[in-house]
């Protein structure tokens, strides 16, 4: 099952744009990027979430048992990739695999945007941090478990 095709189809059904809810209850507008390579959003205009990246995120989350922590707090607090910010966290995974971040470097927080888009599409549930937990996370919906493996 191609996650990117699901996103393209769902956005296409909305004439290429949609309003997506973030974990903080704010919203962002998403649309198919002008160059057609992925999804743009109104909250982080420089970020294009490329179609194939969504497939890789779901593949990695499934490798981790269907749950993947954002790692956004770690990124915001200045933890470095591989030094307090794991590549098994969504922000670490995105930085290393899509933006060629090197271990030991600070990264930009991007997980909330990918997570919100995947949640809107019904592919994952984007979950708030539980008190005393490891932070916010995505949980792959059952029908998308172990696809792309």
What does this structure look like?
- The protein has 149 residues and is an alpha+beta fold.
- The chain has helices spanning 3-13, 51-63, 72-76, 90-98, 111-120, and strands spanning 17-21, 27-32, 38-41, 48-50, 67-69, 80-81, 84-85, 124-127, 137-140.
- The strands form 3 sheets. A 4-stranded antiparallel β-sheet has the order 1-2-3-4.
- The relative contact order is 0.19.
Keywords:
globular; 149 residues; 9 strands; 32% helix; 5 helices; alpha+beta
Largest beta-sheet details: 4 strands, antiparallel
Structural class: alpha+beta
Tell me, rounded to a whole number, the average pLDDT: 92
Number of H- or I-type helical stretches:
5
Helix proportion range: 25-40%
Shape category: globular
Order of helices and strands: HEEEEHEHEEHHEE
Tell me how many strands there are.
Answer: 9
In short:
With 149 residues, the protein is an alpha+beta fold.
List the helices and strands and how they pair.
Blueprint: H1 3-13, E1 17-21, E2 27-32, E3 38-41, E4 48-50, H2 51-63, E5 67-69, H3 72-76, E6 80-81, E7 84-85, H4 90-98, H5 111-120, E8 124-127, E9 137-140
Parallel strand pairs: 6-7
Antiparallel strand pairs: 1-2, 2-3, 3-4, 5-9, 8-9
Helix pairs in contact: 1-2
